[in-house]
What does this fold into?
Amino acid sequence: MRLTTLVSWLASRRIKLGFPLAIVVLMLAQPTWFTWFLGFTIAVVGEALRIWAAGHIEKSTEITQSGPYRWIQHPLYLGSSIIAAGVVFAAKSGVVALIVAIYITTTILSAIRTEETHLRSVFGVAYDVYQVSPNSAVNRSFSVARMMTNREHRAIAGLACGFGLLALRLIVNL
It folds into this structure.
């Protein structure tokens, strides 16, 4: 398999690959209430960043430069990475940390590479300028409707479900 094909495959299937990974994480997790609360707090910070970004981004129609996009080129992916760190802390397992690190590194980097190729093909030089200096101010307010259109409610539900299952594991193991 060519590298570009593998990168594209990983980018397009990162969410579907996350479901079996979540089952593995649940099976290997050794949480305590302390690690669960710490991990949940970290994950909420990551989700807050994702919500903020999703309330600003207009996917494939523009180079978004409002909200967190003024300072960070890929805030949705950074938020996902922070959520993953929260899961690692909550799970309290070295094996989980290794598996999640491999998953996040391969899928997020693949998604970034694929997305940047797409944006460069659609927006050309304007995207190259944004990459050099993303902090051009664009006044656009956060929009809950935009966040919902970008389906961030699914990520919120996934976060709640995942940490709910980790909490259930703690309760059942007591």
About this structure: The chain has a mean pLDDT of 91. Residues 94-123 form the longest helix (30 residues).
